[in-house]
Automatic annotation (TrEMBL), chains A, B:
Ranges for region Disordered: 243-264
Family the entry assigns: Belongs to the transcriptional regulatory Rex family.
Physiological role: Modulates transcription in response to changes in cellular NADH/NAD(+) redox state.
Name of the molecule in the record: Redox-sensing transcriptional repressor Rex
Organism: Streptomyces tamarix
Primary location class: cytoplasm
Length: 264, 264
DNA sequence: GGATGTGAATCTATTCACAGCC
DNA sequence: GGCTGTGAATAGATTCACATCC
């Protein structure tokens, strides 16, 4: 789900597969929970269950980091927490800026999980002058004109974009020009960035659409919902309107004369 | 990034690869934009650029849906919009419930992108009695006790969880028991669900951690940031503190005696 | 005995490159 | 000539199964 231009595995990085990297935070969270309960060691089986993956995958993932377990015993929780934190770069402090302090931006700023792991909200930035100075999550909002200065002064290399779609690319360009090289984009837009800049995107509407796809499948298969599939009340209900293709229902755009042809 | 139990491709579904499904919403968005500008046809090259993928991938993706293009010409925009909408199940209306109307939940409820494509917020639900009745995004919040009734009455099969982590599994269980079979989870927790239920998760902190991993790599590689990599100001700055591993900085949990060993 | 670590096998996804059609 | 559609080739991720070590 990472977007942006390809992001080369950096010349000869000790190539940890992207899929593995994406799971490390999951392991870390599970390990942190164990650590807080003072659990000293954990097996791949247990940890995998806590992280919601299977144990073979977890062991393979860890094998890319090195041999941090003990055969016949398992993994030392504290040790692994540290190793994964270090691998992810969380042993250092990452100042971030968030641009676009509307509903979503404000919610994100208030979201504790942000600050909890090495990330520090260095500044909140908005283009609306009436927002400027207002504290959100205890941090006063600053004006967009100061973006470059703020990034420079705080040594920010990670930016979060929570602006409306229309403003996102422009904000992105300014962030990149000012030295930001990793961007988390909440605006429903494809950002184009130069090589060397990473973009990840989070898109609520896309996630829902993917769910709808599978949901439709479940309903469409009627009785035959794979195996052990719930013929859930909701699925059965959903099956009904499946024959009423009101072409692009609910979209605002032009949807008048849409062809109603069968698929190949 | 889909989680939850495996979700079998449903017996003999006209197997569209998961990776393709995940890109369909992207194509749809790009196409909708073209449609609004009344662009009649588009080539794979152009559309791919707009969606941020390469054209070979796009053509392959479309080939799973059928042959909807015209050689030498391209794709008919309106036609494709309809075909993809239908494939994703967006030609029907999906009532959703959102549970947990805190900062994030309220922001999501207000987020236009939700309602814009076949999704309709049927109800907002919270466990805080003082929230009940308050309108959020024009919809009065309802009490958690009514969850089952609300789902039943509205024929809801998709639920959004935006509660604190501690409450998420419990809410999830109730949603599933009431007939919901697709869940979008914003709580930073692994949800366990029975077979046949799909869970997708969106985790802000995980996305940042993945960015931090790559960011660290860029900084660590010093001059050799792959090729064409910006030796950006921020990257150079970030390189400095890389030698100060203050073990799990900023974490709230126990982080006293963390081993400081080199990796294998 | 018990659990890790890892080659080999499998499955999935991406990319290539070109035949086929407009 | 231009662009789609798709087999074949390649790359990447997951799973299997077992040798290895505590």
């Amino acid at each position: 789900m990472a977007t942006g231009r390809t992001h080369r595995p950096a010349t000869r990085s000790r190539g940890i597969p992207e899929a593995t990297v994406a799971r490390l935070p999951l392991y870390l969270r599970a390990l942190t929970a164990l650590s807080e309960r003072s659990v000293p060691t954990v097996s791949s089986e247990e940890l995998a269950a806590a992280a919601g993956v299977n144990s073979a995958k977890l062991r393979k993932d860890f094998s890319y980091l090195g041999s941090y377990g003990t055969r016949g015993v398992g993994y030392d929780v504290e040790y692994l927490v540290y190793q994964i934190s270090r691998e992810l770069g969380l042993t250092q402090d990452w100042p971030i800026v968030m641009v676009g302090i509307g509903n979503l931006g404000a919610a994100l700023a208030n979201y504790g999980g942000f600050a909890s792991r090495g990330f520090r909200v260095a500044a909140l930035i908005d283009a609306d002058p009436s927002m400027v100075g207002k504290p959100v999550a205890g941090i006063p909002v600053q004006y967009i004109d100061d973006l470059e200065r703020i990034i420079e002064e705080n040594g920010v290399s990670i930016g979060v974009i929570a602006t409306p779609a229309g403003a996102a690319q422009q904000v992105c360009d300014r962030l990149v020009a000012a030295g930001v090289s990793s961007i988390l984009n909440f605006a429903p837009t494809v950002l184009s960035v130069p090589d060397g800049v990473d973009v990840r995107k989070v898109d609520l509407s896309i996630e829902l659409q993917i769910l709808a796809f599978h949901e439709q499948r479940k309903a469409g298969e009627d009785g035959a919902v794979g195996e052990a599939g719930l013929p859930s009340a909701a699925a059965v209900r959903a099956a009904a309107p499946a024959t009423a293709p009101a072409a692009t229902a609910g979209r605002k755009g032009p949807d008048g004369d849409v062809p109603a042809v069968m698929p190949a």
